[in-house]
Amino acid sequence: MLTEIALPDFDVDLELLYATADNLSGRPIYRAAVCLLHPEAARRLQDAIRLARGIGCRLRVYDAFRPAEAQWRLWRAFPDPTYIADPRLGSNHTRGVAIDLTLLDASGRPLDMGTGFDAMTERSHHGRSDLTGEQQRNRALLLGVMTAAGWEHYASEWWHYQLPDPERYPLLTDAAAGGRLM
Predict the structure, then answer these.
(1) β-strands 13-14, 58-63: how paired?
(2) Residues annotated within a binding site for Zn(2+)
């Protein structure tokens, strides 16, 4: 059973870009903007929400659970295993234990992370020293919030976090979401 991430239970801003054409494929991946996570990931997201609030920020979620069917669509659009998991191997999003997100300031503006979400370039990698000091601090803030809440980062994407040992969770199709996404 997956947990729906939505107001009022989860104080996050949802901008589920894969339900729009504003993503790397150029067309909607999902037919509906529904945000879901494994219950353990949802619990840790609540911790991250609390920690972000403590530094005067809020979280914006770009993607969470991604059915296997959607993983295939992304792979066909951008078959680079540095950024898109090969669906034959499985994605941690397809397990419901990964999330793509950023921090918003008190006025609701995203903090400058140096690249946008899904910028599939080396500038999106963690630990970049060729970013401005502000961009590095903003990435460090997000990293601090998420790791303090029990998430692990993915080295190639500043926006991607996942639960430790994700392979212990099964890969899921849209059936796990009641057919709501695809």
Answers:
(1) parallel
(2) 93, 100, 160
